[in-house]
Design brief:
The structure is a single chain. It is elongated, with a radius of gyration of 21 Å. The protein is of the alpha/beta class and 291 residues long. It has helices spanning 3-16, 22-34, 38-42, 51-65, 70-74, 97-115, 130-138, 151-163, 197-200, 205-210, 224-233, 252-262, and strands at residues 77-79, 82-84, 120-124, 143-148, 170-174, 185-190, 237-246, 267-272, 278-284. Strands 5-4-3-6-7-9-8 form a seven-stranded mixed β-sheet, sandwiched between helices. Strands 1-2 form a two-stranded antiparallel ribbon. The protein folds into two domains: 3-66, Helicase, Ruva Protein, domain 3 (Orthogonal Bundle); 97-284, Vaccinia Virus protein VP39 (Rossmann fold, 3-Layer(aba) Sandwich), CATH 3.40.50.150. It is 43% helix and 18% strand. The chain starts with a helix and ends in a 7-residue tail after the last strand. α11 runs parallel beside α12 (252-262).
């Protein structure tokens, strides 16, 4: 069996089992099995695979057919142009979270220009550390507190911080929301659990069976963890600072109400993702509330 034969055979197998983007997933898994990149793989499409190589690839495909996410199988997830290590101790970073990063970078650069110093940032619910690392690499003078309630998630975040040599820029903190944060932050960013419990039963098997529930489920309405953060945040944000929250589709009205109750003097802005969904709420700690 050649590389081309293997790609054709197992792309069909994945497709028949309902795996989306089967060709791309087969390519990623075969690259991983052979320890090749995409260019190397396609430059060798006529190479005959050894029996052990075929067996290795088949094992990976079988794991995928059991709905284990490819990112967990390979230990890799591309996010904001970075290679982030992930496993089942953490949520897999999603493309929509890049909207949160973009808004945080805009704020961070503006803060630095306005105050002539780099911002102090807290990344709450850091998981793999993908958000904190993206910010640290793009705002190299800033310092970031990366917080998560899960000790297992902290272990994964530590791997990624070490990989990108950011120990001097990122402080990992095991704790619940803002409880372990002292002082005032220029910026708080948070991608917290926002799946409502009734919706959890409709999640894809890849998510429901493999990704950590603590990073997904936000209580009965999906907003309980976000509400807890907002209720703690008033005394944790510097004058002129901001909070950026990733939210679920259709949650903007409820979360805006929560913010207005807890932070009546704040200004609220919605930021949409590429699908036109309100994905990020920016809370500016000055001015009057608006939607």
């Amino acid at each position: 069996m050649t590389i081309a034969d293997a790609l054709h055979k197992y792309t069909s197998k994945l497709k028949q089992d309902g795996i989306d983007e089967a060709a791309g997933e087969a390519k990623v898994l075969l690259c991983y099995a052979l320890n090749l990149n995409s260019a190397q793989l396609f430059s060798q499409v006529d190479r005959i695979l050894t029996p052990s190589e075929i067996t290795s690839f088949e094992i990976l495909v079988d794991r995928r057919l059991k709905r284990e996410p490819t990112a967990y199988i390979t230990g890799h997830k591309e996010f904001f142009g970075l290679d982030i290590y992930v496993d089942d101790r953490v949520l897999i970073p999603r493309p929509e979270t890049e909207v949160l990063i973009e808004e945080a970078l805009k704020f961070g650069l503006a803060w630095s220009e306005r105050n002539e110093k780099a911002p102090l940032i807290a990344d709450i619910g850091t998981g793999s550390g993908a958000i904190a690392i993206s910010l640290a690499l793009n705002l190299p003078a800033s310092h970031i507190y990366a917080v998560d309630i899960s000790e297992k998630a902290m272990e994964v975040a530590a791997i990624n911080v070490e990989r990108y040599r950011l120990k001097d820029n990122i402080t990992l903190i095991h704790g619940n929301l803002l409880e372990q944060i002292s002082g005032k932050m220029a910026l708080i960013v948070a991608n917290l659990p926002y799946i409502a419990e009734p919706e959890a039963s409709y999640l894809q098997a890849e998510i429901a069976k493999h990704e950590p529930g603590i990073a997904l489920k936000g209580g009965v309405n999906g907003t309980e963890v976000i509400q807890s953060l907002v209720s703690q945040a008033n005394d944790k944000v510097a004058a002129g600072g901001a909070i950026l929250l990733e939210i679920g589709a259709g949650q903007e009205q409820e979360i805006t109400r929560l913010i207005r109750d807890c932070m009546p003097g704040s200004e609220i802005e919605l930021v949409k993702d590429l699908s036109g969904i309100a994905r990020v709420i920016k809370i500016d700690m000055k001015g009057s509330p608006r939607l």
